[in-house]
Amino acid sequence: MLDQWVLDRCWSNYELIKGDIRAVELIFNGLGGGVCSKWSPQELALAEQNILSITPYYGPWCWMNRLARQMVDELIEHIYQLLALPENTPLISSGGSMGGCAALLYCRYGQKVPIGCDVLYPVCDLIRHFRERKDVAPTMYHAFYGYPEPWDEVLKEHSPLHQADFMPCIPYLIIHGEDDAAVAIGHSEKMAAALKQQNHQVEFIRVPRMGHAVNVPFTVWQKKVDFAVSLLDDL
User: Fold this and answer.
1) Of 186, 235, 220, 233, which is closest to residue 94 (Cα–Cα)?
2) Distance, CA of 93 to CA of 53 (rounded, Å)
3) What is the rounded distance in angstroms from the CA atom of residue 235 to the CA atom of residue 220?
4) For 33-67, what is each residue's pLDDT tens digit?
C-alpha cells in the first residue's frame, strides 16, 4: 500500500488497480493545478490496464524547476521501493499545458528515463511563452526566483524545445488543438519537428476545433491511453 509519505506528495489511482502493476505513469498538472480529489477518465482507464498513475503535487507554478525535478525523482524512487516494483517496471511521462512541458522535461532530466511521453497542448518554448500571455510572467518569476544564471539561460533550461537535442530516444505523442488560444499550436509544431530532426519516433496530431482544455474529444483521452498500452505491448 502507499504510505502517508507518498499520499502527502501525490494523487494516484492505486486503490483502483486489481492486478499486478504493469507500469507507472506520471501525469503532470497544468498551470494553477493543485491537490486532486477525483479520478480523471485517463486515470480510470489506466487503472483498467493495471497502470499505476501518479500525479505529483509538484506545485501549480513550478514550470518543472530544479526543485520540482528533485521532488519527482525522490517520489518515484520511494514508490518503486515501497511497492517492491522491479527496477525494469516501465515509467511513462504524461501531461498537458505546463504539465506537458513538465512531462517532456522529466524525460530530459529525470533519474529514471521514461519509455514514452504523451503531451497535450504542451508549452515547449518558455522564451516565447513568457510574453505570450500576461498571466505567465509572474509564474515564471516565482518558479525561477534566485537562480543565478542569466534569465534567457534559465528559460532555455526549462524549455523542451531548447533541450530537444538532449531528449532520450523514446516514442513521443504530441496532441494540440487548432483553436488553442492559450498555448499556440506552434509550440507543438516546432517541438515535433525538432524531435523528428533527432530521428526520434514522433506522432503529432492536430485536432480541429479543439481549444485549451475546451472541446477536447473523448478520442483524445482514448488516444493517450492507447499510446501508453502500446508502449507496453512493444516491450
Assistant:
1) 220
2) 10
3) 24
4) 989 989 999 999 999 999 999 999 999 999 999 99
